[in-house]
Fold this protein.
Amino acid sequence: MSFKKQDILGALEKISAPGEGKNLVESNAVTNIVVFDNEVIIDVTIANPTLQAKKKTEVEVMKIIHDQVGQKIDVKVNVKSEVVEAGSKRIAQDKSIPGINNIIAIASGKGGVGKSTITANIAVSLTKMGFKVGVLDADVYGPSMPIMFGVEKERPLSVKIDGKSKMKPIENYGVKMLSLGFFTDPNQAVIWRGAMASKALNQMIFDAHWGELDFLLVDLPPGTGDIHLSMVQAVPITGAVIVSTPQNIALADAKRGVAMFKQENINVPVLGIVENMSYFTPKELPENKYYIFGKDGAKHLASDLGTNLLGEIPLIQSIRESGDVGHPVALQDGSEIEKAFNEVAKNMLSELVKRNKNLPPTEIVRITTMSGCSTK
Ligand SMILES: Nc1ncnc2c1ncn2[C@@H]1O[C@H](COP(=O)(O)OP(=O)(O)O)[C@@H](O)[C@H]1O
Ligand SMILES: [Mg+2]
């Protein structure tokens, strides 16, 4: 049988593109069609980067071509997502960390609001969706990723890559991880740890073999200090996520966190705010919600600041317990809390897709010190 590219396009016009009221062809999702003999290769780029969405598109495309053009056609569909696409373009401009597509800073104004818990669980959710994820624990005051991932006894080994020695991240639950905790002594005064932290941070970024990553999540220390400055100078951060509890004192600090990233000379897009400990639900009364830190605080802050609320995570015992035993709660398939973290991850992804579509790549911050020497 013979068919033309036009026949394929005609069939693809019958598939509607999600959310835009346009079809797949109109929305420019079909990026390439190659026909030869009985075979057609179709490249499609969609906004939703989850494996499910890619699979769904692939099946839809195959089906419509078999139904409308010919049952026997050998159809090959390559579905890519924009997150990764736009991300790789960004890194192409900054050759220094090849293979890492999107760097997401997780920050909070206040300590103890659950920044590390959120980081670990988002990392797990993204990994379960099929992404390649790394976590960089840059919290000099309280590096906690090794415990949260149950790898506190391990130390990164070195591997030879192109003749150079590189640090190999530790991997658990499919997430790659490096932590300042592997390099600093917890008994050392924070000021000394701080001095070593910038150097260790740079090593964990540039002398590590992360391989291909869709996302590197960076767990920053609380507040707006030196490590934040080192970070924005070392790497182009694609976007920041701010974690806060709903109470006013935490929100005020979260506001400062948002302001720091938005500063003109830093200019890191804020993807949104995650509200943690939104309400307490006891195990024996799963329907009850107690708003012990106040209600909707982060929602109001997000709307005041013109940013997004990415989700609300309840205060529940199993989150703390699973953190302590090194088995993030988002690993529990089918649980309510897994769903809550998936929701946060999905909302973050959709903001990231928009960000990568609408804004230019983040640039590394180049700050000149008082003495006139560039720190970069
Ligand atoms: N939603 C939650 N429910 C229950 N415990 C939580 C929750 N979020 C965090 N925790 C616990 O609170 C403590 C502080 O959280 P952590 O993630 O270490 O905060 P941060 O990194 O902001 O300092 C940890 O013991 C953690 O297990
Ligand atoms: Mg922490």
